Amino acid sequence: EVQLVQSGAEVRAPGESLKISCKGSGYSFSNYWIGWARQMPGKGLEWMGIIYPGDSDTRYSPSFQGQVTISADKSITTAYLQWSSLKASDTAMYYCGCSGRSADNFDYWGQGTLVTVSS
Amino acid sequence: QSVLTQPPSVSGAPGQRVTISCTGSSSNIGAGYDVHWYQQVPGAAPKLLIYANNNRPSGVPDRFFASKSGTSASLTITGLQTEDEADYYCQSYDRSLSGYVVFGGGTELTVL
Lengths: 119, 112
Fold this sequence. Notes:
The complex is a heterodimer of chains A (119) and B (112). Chain A has 119 residues and is mainly β. Chain A is 0% helix and 50% strand. Chain A is built from no helices and eleven strands. Chain A is globular and about 40 Å long. In chain B, the strands form two sheets. In chain B, strands 1, 3, 4, 7, 8 and 9 form a six-stranded mixed β-sheet that branches. Chain B has a three-stranded antiparallel β-sheet with strand order 2-6-5, with no helix packed on it. The radius of gyration of chain B is 13 Å and the shape is globular. Classes of the chains: A mainly beta (119), B mainly beta (112). The interface between A and B is medium-sized, with 26 and 28 residues.
């Protein structure tokens, strides 16, 4: 059974850095695309970017390019989403998702990580 | 403002049929890119409902089916059940500068 388990909720002040995680199990981690989507409070889903752990091919939505960094560690089957300097507008639920078929959809989803940025 | 346009809300009574539209353009759906659909029950993570235009993952009831034509796609739910009350999102690839992979704005389904 494919499972994606995300790290817990985080509260940070503006300007701080943050790295959240998504651990995959039940499938060949290196051979599935894994990525992230944002959902701001009361709003819809936004696709952020995706990585192929097998060769580290990483693709970002232009809206998020340069704002976040997506990475993956094959040795511990975990993907990451990180910020170097958070803004209040980064407050949102972040979901990871993976697909064994293509880079343009998520077959399986994590449970979500709530990030709150507040002074 | 998403490049894929969905109605903000639809509703139907139990047992009825509802259709949710997803209107795109020649840079996404009309260019032949696949459309996928997700269901998000309030307070839960999204779940894949339909992939590659009209394919149901294992476990998704055949009450859910989807189609694509020209620059639009649609999701139809027959025999509405109260448990179908959720937000529904379409997703595709857009080759313009607006983004790589894009979601529709989402449609809230209310089962009356």
